[in-house]
Amino acid sequence: MFEIVLSLNQQKTFENTWEYFCELYGWYNDPYSTGGLRYLLLLPSHSKTVIGTIEFIPYDEENPNSTVEGHFQFSKIKKVKEHKERVWEIDKLCLHKDFQRNGHFERFLEIFYHHAQEYRPKYYIGLMEKRFFRMVRIIFGVYIIQVGKEIDGETTILIPVVLDMEKIMNNEKMALNLFNKGFKHKNTFNIKQIFNFKLKRRNTKRKVETNH
Question: N or C: which end of the chain has fewer CB within 10 A?
């Protein structure tokens, strides 16, 4: 269950959740990109409870507010350079500490699935905190690749990564097994729901969207 951040109240909730962990762990708080798409991860049993955040940003190596390029030159990675119009940055990924050991991290897969359907990314890129990278690598396996050396910060270690989302979506068995984990509180997905979905870019004013 999730919400896309569209209102000022949702943005404030996102900021409060993310910035709390920035302060707690001493993380750097990247600027909020005007082109970013932000999601609130909600507790299934209580839709008013926000347990996590994630932001997707269209990649632009010339963007002075890029959350990644200033720390690691993804623009020099061949696969990113060749398909940069279909690359999205992952940023502001966090899960509330009270829910980190209860299998809730897999619920982010519901958000990845939604974003992949809507925007058809080829790659996701990001600088992941080492602890989160370990969790994400368990989920995505060989489809997430460390593309550079660890980056030492004052309070954390960041890992530059590329996630091959297109390969995941083109592998029916992999995608079905993967996304059923994210939707485990729902009925199992019909394979046609994943692979026969027609992508539609939003050309009209978006309404507040909650996935139940």
Answer: C
The amino acid at residue 210 is T
DSSP string, 140-157: HGGGEEE-S--EE-SS-E
Please name which of 186, 161, 185, 199 lies closest in space to residue 79, comparing C-alpha atoms.
161
pTM score of the predicted model: 0.81
Model pLDDT for residues 4-46, shown as the tens digit of each residue: 999 999 999 999 999 988 888 777 787 888 889 999 999 877 7
pLDDT in tens, 152-182: 877 788 999 999 999 998 888 888 877 776 5
d(CA 94, CA 135): 12
Question: Beta partners for 55?
Answer: 38, 91
Residue at 116: amino acid letter: A
Q: Which helix (H) or strand (E) holds 117?
A: helix 108-119
- Residue labelled with tokens 């920035």: 22
Cα separation, 80 vs 7, in Å, equals 32
